[in-house]
Every structure is written in structure tokens, then in C-alpha cells.
Amino acid sequence: MHAALQQETLTRSVEDYLKAIYRLSPEGRPAATSDIANLLELSPASVSGMVKRLSEQGLLEHVPYKGVQLTDEGRRAALRMVRRHRLIEAYLVATLGYTWDTVHEEAERLEHAVSDTLVERMAAVLGHPTVDPHGDPIPAADGSIEEPECVPLTEVAPGRTVELRRVDESQPERLRYIASVGLIPGAAVTVLERQPFDGPITIQASGRTHVIGHELGRVLFCTGDDGV
Amino acid sequence: MHAALQQETLTRSVEDYLKAIYRLSPEGRPAATSDIANLLELSPASVSGMVKRLSEQGLLEHVPYKGVQLTDEGRRAALRMVRRHRLIEAYLVATLGYTWDTVHEEAERLEHAVSDTLVERMAAVLGHPTVDPHGDPIPAADGSIEEPECVPLTEVAPGRTVELRRVDESQPERLRYIASVGLIPGAAVTVLERQPFDGPITIQASGRTHVIGHELGRVLFCTGDDGV
DNA sequence: CCTCATTATTAGGCACTCCTAATTCTGAGT
DNA sequence: ACTCAGAATTAGGAGTGCCTAATAATGAGG
Lengths: 228, 228
Known about the structure:
2 copies of one chain form a homodimer.
Chain A: H1 3-9, H2 12-24, H3 33-40, H4 44-56, E1 60-63, E2 67-70, H5 72-95, H6 103-110, H7 116-125, E3 151-152, E4 161-167, H8 172-180, E5 188-194, E6 201-205, E7 208-212, H9 214-217, E8 220-224
Antiparallel strand pairs in A: 1-2, 3-8, 4-5, 4-8, 5-6, 6-7
Helix pairs in contact in A: 2-3, 2-5, 3-4, 5-6, 5-7
Chain A binds a DNA duplex through residues 11, 13, 32-34, 42-50, 52-53, 64-66.
């Protein structure tokens, strides 16, 4: 009821908290104070304080010492930010020469400044894209979001060829490396070999063979021929 | 020396103060506290406080009870914001369907969020424009700005035909009216009649005749055939 | 079931940016 | 010169959002 009123008055910080909590609570499992503090690079004490305020405002449900979850209103606000962020990334890459390693930082600031009108115009110019440059799905304006069923490359059986859908990484240097190896969303990747005990993975992508670490494999999400 | 360091840390508020003071001190004449308060819609007391802090930071020169001027460093920062604002306006109008009456508000928020990189890319996409949609000159990246010699329409002699260069107005409704009468930058305007005592002005623009109030005439800046 | 490391919260502070109310300064007109 | 309205400043206070240090709760291992 007062959602519309508050929507106008969320501060930059609040928007960041909501986005972080959204990111940290897949399937609505509660997020821990320390994880939020880590993600936002703040002290746990600061997070405790803000969480308390946001709970009182009805954006979060907080069980002290247990964790925090978004309310419906909080989730709406979070998804609005996610939509903005990903559309801005898509727009900057498509029209202003940004690359996927540089676009995150710019979007991180712009997402708090753009109007709904501007976001929707960018979406229209791009033909209403459904994924951002990293392959992350873009929530619809009504807040609905469709996460494709993906598995990390670390779980693809040797011999299988899969399509790379999403790269869950934000460090620019790592992204540049990943792109340099041809691992961009849409690429076909064949797993040639997988060493046991979280060892390296040998793959073929864009016709070349590469050995990648297990840790890197964990951020590369793929769908296979059978839909998984 | 510490200019570069501070550049990174100017807050939104500080940027707005600098921009306001720049606007209020043509030719470096000091700006009055109350004028700044008016423009930013703040109390004079708030302005006094901020002015004191910014003076201590070296962005302003303040003579208490007299007025405030930008230092070189403050002017640089102000011009940077003006450049951003006007380039953003030009970009939004050129590529995202904005009109001159709606673009100011969006730019007002974006100017605080964009990176130098983004601003320069927008400039490049537009072919480095020199004026914004209202005809205001866009400062160069080095801070130089070239104000064309203009006179308000209220000072153009009857019978003269001039070119409308700049419309110094930001209220959307007024801008829509002005555009509806064909008074956009670049338009040729002939002054047919001027009533005395700040009375209305009869003009011809886009082949039609209009009578406009003195107050409106004061925001329409023109250059004539003889350069003035 | 008790202890203790981990995690979270509260307490107390600070910087920023705004406010209203009270005070002080300035300069124009007598 | 003096007064006084208007402009500017200072005083005091509030909300946000962060911090460090101190305290409290949790739950895993002995």
C-alpha cells in the first residue's frame, strides 16, 4: 500500500542492500549478516543497523541472529534494480562501445540514477533483450524472471558438448581472460577431460583447446543438448 | 595539487552547489547566499554552512556577508558538471527519444553518476556537439567554453530578423509552449512590433505571427545578421 | 551439558546535509 | 550619524549511513 510511496524514496544505500540480499538468497533462503557485509564491503555492525531499519520499513524480514529475507515489497524493489543494472549493461555494450569487463562498474552507478522511462527506452532500443552481456537473465518490468536451468562446467561429463549460457564473474581481469579464450555466452564448449579432486578441465572452444581451473569452471554455466 | 584527489570525492550535493554558483556568477561576480538557496531550494542557513565547508576545501572563496566565488579548482569542477549535463541532454534527445522539455530532469540525476569515459563516448557518438538542445554551449573537456554574443529578443529592434540561438528556460510546460510556436534554436525570428514599458512583442517565426510576453522574450537569446 | 570460537548485535561516535530559530551584520534612508 | 529591514550567519537538532569496540547469542566439539 505504501510501497509506491517508498519506491520513490529508496536511497542508493538501501537499493544496494536490497540487491545484495536478493543475490544472497536464492530460493528465499535467509541471507547472513556477514555475507551481506562482505558483498557490500561494509562492517557487520553497519549491516545489522541497516537491516533493522529496513525491517521496520517492511522491506525485509529479520530474525535476529538467524538471517534476513526480502518481503514481497523488498523483492520487487530488488528486482527493479537488477533489471536496471542488466539493461544498462546491455545498452552500454550494444551502443556505446563498452565491453563486458568494463560495463559492470558503470552500471553500478547508473542504476541508481536512471528513471523508469529511460530504462524502458533503452530496452526498446535494444528490442527488449532477455539477457545481459554476461548471460544473466533480465527481469521483466513486472518483476518476473526466468532463470534457465544451467549447470556449471565443472559438472559437465567429458565428451559432452554444451552451450555456454552465463558467466558469473565480475572481476574485469578474469572476464578479459575468459573472453580471450572464446568463452562468451552462446559459445559451444566441448569438455574433453576432467581431472578428479577439483582438478583442471580440458575443453575445446572456438576450435581451440584450453585447460581451465576448477574454480573458473564453476562460474561458467551451461545448457547441454538434452536441455541440461 | 590535491585537486585530482578531491575530484573523485565530490558528493552530489557539492556538485550541485558548484554548478549553482557557476550559474550565478557570470564574469566571476560573487553569488549571494540567498540566490544559491533559491536556486537549489534550500534554506539560506544550509547554504551558509556548506559554503563555509567548501571554502575550507579550496573550492570557493567566501567573504562573509559579501558573497562567494569559485576558485579555479571549483570552476573546473563546475564546468565538468555543466559539460556532463549538456552532453547528456544532447545524447538523450538525439538517441533515446527525449524532448527538450523532459530532458533536463533526467540529466540532472545522470550527471552525478556517469563516468568521464561514458560522457566522452556519448560526445563521440554525437560527433562532439557544441551546443545542447536548448542552445547552451557545451564546455570542452579541458573546461573552455565559448558563449556566443547573444541578445534577448526583448532588445531586438522591430523590423530586424535574427536567429534564435538559446532558450534559457527549464520549466517543461513553458518549453513545450515555446517549441509549439516554432521557437527552437536555429529558427529565424522577425520582430514586427514591440510595445513599450515591457509590453508584448509581436514576432514572425516559421511563417506565422505570434505575440509573446516580455518575460518570455527575455529568455530567448538571438544573434542578428550583423553578428549581434 | 558446558565451553568457546564464530557470528551478530548494541553502544557510542563521526561526517554529511539538511532544518528552524536566534543572532549578527550590512547598507539604505532618514 | 542612526535606525532598521533584510541578508547572512551561528546555534542547536535530526536523519542517514558509516565506523570501532564492547557485549551477547549461537551451535559445534569435547
